[in-house]
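To illustrate the input format used throughout this study, we show a single complete record. The first block contains the structure-token representation of the backbone; no residue identities are included at this stage. The design step must infer an amino acid for every position from geometry alone.
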């Protein structure tokens, strides 16, 4: 996984002539939003991606972070990202 992320970031890092590691932009705590989002938005602009929220880059997350029996379902990934994913309502 780390190798794949480095490949995606390599072009951008070369363009801005940085010799950076992941923690130069990202916190070591996955839940903290400490990354410069303009880096990602400029780099991935126009790139079509498909996601499977059950295989998150932050690791295994609890089902109830997206699915709730008593509230509207909410895609946890959208705390940082803007994905258009239909989260099934398990309360019905």
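Output of the design step:
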């Amino acid at each position: 996984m780390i190798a794949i992320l480095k490949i995606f970031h390599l072009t951008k890092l070369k363009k801005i002539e940085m010799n950076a590691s992941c923690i130069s932009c990202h916190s070591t705590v996955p839940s903290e939003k400490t990354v410069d989002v303009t880096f990602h938005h400029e780099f991935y602009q126009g790139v079509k991606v498909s996601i499977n929220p059950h295989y998150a880059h932050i690791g295994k997350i609890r089902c109830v972070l997206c699915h709730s029996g008593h509230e509207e379902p909410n895609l946890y990934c959208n705390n940082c990202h803007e994905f258009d994913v239909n989260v099934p309502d398990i309360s019905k």
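Structural context for interpreting the output: Residues 9 and 15 are 10 Å apart (CA to CA). The chain has a mean pLDDT of 69.
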